Amino acid sequence: MSIMCSFALRYNSSAAAGVIRASTSMVVLRIRNVLKRKCALICLSVAVVITYRYLGAYWRDRLMKMKACGINTLSTCVPWSLHQPQRGVFNFHTQLDLEAYINLAAELGLWVILRPGPYISSELDLGGLPSWLLQNDDMRVRTTYPGFTEAVNIFFDKLIPKVVPLQFKKGGPIIAVQVENEYGSFAKDDAYMPFIKAALQSRGICELLLTSDNHNTLKSGGVEGAMRSLKLQKLNQRDVQDLTIIRPNTPTMVMDYWTGWYDVWGDLHHVLPPEDMVSSVREILRHGMSVNLYMFHGGSSFGFMSGGQAEPSYKALIPSYDYDAPLSEAGEYTQKYHLLRDLFSQFNRGEKFPDMPVVQHKEAYEPAILYQHLSLWDALRFTEGPYESDMPVNMEKLPMNNRNGQSHGYTLYETTISSGGLLTSGDNVKDRALVFVNKSYIGLFKRQNLELAVPDGKGQRTLSLLVENCGRVHRGRDLDKQRKGLVGDILLNNIPLRKFTIYSLEMEPSFIYSLYQAPWKTLPESPSFPCFFMGQLFVYGYPSDTFVKLPGWDKGVVFINGINLGRYWSIGPQQTLYLPGPFLNRGINQIIVFEEQEGDYKVNFEDTADLGMAADIQ
Fold first, then answer.
1. H or E segment at 534?
2. Is pLDDT larger for residue 473 or for residue 234?
3. Domain check: are 494 and 516 in the same one?
4. Residue 183: strand, helix, or coil
5. Is residue 422 part of a domain?
6. Is the pTM above the cut of 0.85?
7. What is the CATH number of the domain that holds 307?
8. How high is the pLDDT of residue 449?
């Protein structure tokens, strides 16, 4: 019996960062048109977050660790939002070179399952859909609404010709292509899945097609001519029966077996006991099913690419996508990895797996003291804008980025008031807003706090709302409603505020680099917040992976050499941010921290990750 594995790729959208994620699955499939015989298919998808500039530095390492586990197929998702950040602007170069990535898989002897979307979820902001779609007030994503299908066709016109020559029938490694992703949980348009299928095939996709859904949405998520597959964490007999009833006499596959789960701010770190994971995988194989492990290697979501969950209430995802996966966030072997390797070896006809690659060294560097300070207000001159508007304007509709709007980060809204009173937000702040009067903090708007008292004062005063986009939800039926910033009126004493000056703080690398020329000041005893802090980390010798820890800080964002590592937040669970060695220079490294409310002025670097207090997945 031969063994195959799949590997899933995920990118990060900030100009300096990218994401790869990996999951593993084991399946028994009859892919006669690919392998010309019966075979056991072990699918592995892996997601590792690395900056665009250095993403390639760890591609080979993660793929080799996957192969050493006994996996031989890479399942890769294609994030539309990264490859087309603006209308008419496409990026398939350097660290977004999908063809190079697939060719590397082929070089290493791996097959590929392609998951081109357009919606991929992967716990990405808006499930990987570009935020500029939401400029259209009537937009209905994942339907045959003309505004959406036109955008999909334009993207596929660029994407699909790149992968057509890489299909198995043309001598390449791609053996199967997924049609969209878990559409059964959305299912708003019966014509949508046939549209996506036709969009793929009309452009030259000729390999096995498949769909993937939860067991209770299998019927509504499939499309004629595509093999249906399951998503689950624990197999029961009914799952197998449901799949067999819907598609009798066809191979059965678990496309996403969840080896762990993602984490959200304010919760605990989710873990799945290794024994439970390997027991479920063994049971799936015992039923003669193919299986894909999601995730095999979760990695990180650098920058602002993490999504959010909508149910039971909105919560933003943390930057780490460790997922309690067999290969850790930093590419380290876990007990799950070793158990899987032992299990998969039983299906390998006695052939020896490749040796396990050496794990990268982790370094605990000396703490960096942040000795310079720049207030938010002094940094505004380096932003794009400002923009004047009588009424609030949500991020997506700001006239920036060649009129494609703002995708991520913060937006500052300022207006003048002449009295105090009761400030109310309704449900119009997405997702958090720090509120100031004449640059003095007066309170916080969030989804559970809809009123603030504005103190009385003399004359005209400036009211400022610093609104953070914490991440658009990555799944659910309300993707069309994921606009961020101020999405409606803010009332003072029941009167809507008007005449806004708006600053975009998307915090792209170009903005961070421009801050090096800003009027930084020596750190005062009582710095004003929000503000930026700057310091240096000195690295002797070859840079190693490390983990950034910020005890005593409240909430903000960390940048290393202009690269956005992601958010930190004292509420946890995540306590460290993964910093890959390729992000660092030999010698001096610039560190900038944007802090909202409270800082300790020191950044620690540790040699182990701290993802917070763990709790078993229920």
1. strand 531-539
2. 473
3. no
4. helix
5. yes
6. yes
7. 3.20.20.80
8. 73
Buried residues in 103-138 as b, exposed as e (16+ CB within 10 A) = ebbbebebbbbbbbbbbbbbbbbbbbbbbbbbbbee
Number of domains in the chain: 3
Do residue 416 and residue 297 come from a single domain? no
Name the percent of the chain lying above pLDDT 70: 91
* Rounded CA separation 384/402 (Å): 11
Helix-, strand-, coil-residue percentages of the chain, each rounded to 5: 25, 35, 45
**Residue written as tokens 């509709």?**
397
CATH number at residue 551: 2.60.120.260
Domain that holds residue 538: 368-373+510-616
pLDDT digits (tens, 9 = 90+) for 297-322: 988 999 999 999 998 899 999 999 99
Burial of 494 (0-12, 13-18, 19+ CB in 10 A): exposed
The region of weakest confidence among 37-41, 140-144, 496-500, 558-562 is 37-41
Burial code (b: 16+ CB inside 10 Å, e: under 16) for 551-573 equals eebbbbbbbbbbbbbbbbbeebb
SS3 at position 165: helix
pLDDT in tens, 485-507: 999 999 999 999 999 999 999 99
User: Residue 42's pLDDT is what?
Assistant: 55
* One-letter amino acid for residue 603 of the chain: V
Q: Residue 414, by phi and psi: left (phi above 0), alpha (psi -120 to 50) or beta?
A: beta
Segment 280-286 shows an average pLDDT of: 91
Which residue, 580, 596, 583, is CA-closest to 465?
A: 596
Question: Would residue 2 count as lying in a domain?
Answer: no
Residue 34, SS3? helix
